[in-house]
Amino acid sequence: MVWTPLHAKIHRTIRSRHLFERNQRLLIAVSGGQDSLCLIKLLLDLQSKWGWDLGIAHCDHRWRSDSQANANHVENLAKTWGISFYLETANQPINSEAAARDWRYQALSAIAQANNYQYIVTGHTASDRAETLLYNLIRGTGADGLQALTWQRPLTTGIMLVRPLLEITRSQTEQFCQEFKLPIWEDSTNQDLQYARNRIRQELIPYLRENFNPQVESALAQTAELLQAEVEYLEKAAQELREKALGMGHEEVRLNRRVLQKAPLALQRRVMRQVLQQILTDAPSFEHIEKLTALIIAPNRSQTDPFPGGAIAQVEGDWICLK
């Protein structure tokens, strides 16, 4: 086995970030593209050091004419490497990127649960992290949207989603695949510029690289990494503040304004966002959060217009009441 700097880096990352322990069962999501092939090859090579039990899962969205051939290609790779292969095929073609992502994570979770895997591992890279940051920044978001691709997050009870390649760029995974002659399956939809993410990947990032910073992907990925720790800290602080401010024993949600008035604006907004996340079906917008935050210092009897779903927030003395 050839041991490259990339092998060493991933080995170190897994150890220092405690992404996996020894002898665990890992389900690797493999599309057949360069990132997922680089990931599976690295984990196969590290397997002897860690004693993992590896499996490959492939999700066929059925939105390309060659999607079945793609699935067969990945299945043959699994056979060559002698590891278990699991395939999930969509009942009907899935049309939007967001719907495809949701379906993929559900499918992977189901395979993991049925076959006793503790981890689902994906090949997201620093390039994906940079693209996600730009994508969310352009649409309007807070720090949470900018750090959206994290190293690990629980998917369902007992199953963790892990992304070990977040410090590696797409050009590095491509180089790795060429070095080891891994048979990449080119996904034609990656070239389709009707998807905003593809335009960011094919047009915006190359433009930024050429005109502003040759290392733009790593720079943005680093920003996401810094924001991740800050978001985690702020969310925790906001949760503690919310628990202090919540009035107990009522049907409605009641928040104590005196408790909230002492807190910095960043935490006030986060508390309001957490409260709204529990009562709204969709993610709360900036306007929703500002409207509710304004009540912290508003005159008595002030109230908001209805939120989606009909709830109204009202000031009653020291309290903000959501009805």
Structural description of this entry:
There is one protein chain. Helices cover 51% and strands 13% of the residues. With 323 residues, it is α/β, with parallel strands linked by helices. The strands form two sheets. A six-stranded mixed β-sheet has the order 3-2-1-4-6-5, with helices on both faces. It has a three-stranded antiparallel β-sheet with strand order 7-9-8. Helix 2 crosses helix 7 and helix 11 crosses helix 12. The protein is elongated and about 70 Å long.
What is the CA-based Rg, rounded? 23 Å
Q: Which descriptor suits the 3D outline?
A: elongated
Order of helices and strands: HEHEHEHEHHEEHHHEHHHEE
Number of strands: 9
Walk across the major sheet and give the strand order: 3-2-1-4-6-5
Average pLDDT, rounded to a whole number, is: 93
Low-confidence stretches: none
> Which structural class do you get from the secondary structure elements?
alpha/beta
Distance from first to last alpha carbon: 64 Å
Binned strand content: 5-15%
Q: Summarize the main sheet.
A: 6 strands, mixed
The number of distinct helices, counting runs of at least 4 residues, comes to 12
The portion of residues assigned to helices is 40-55%
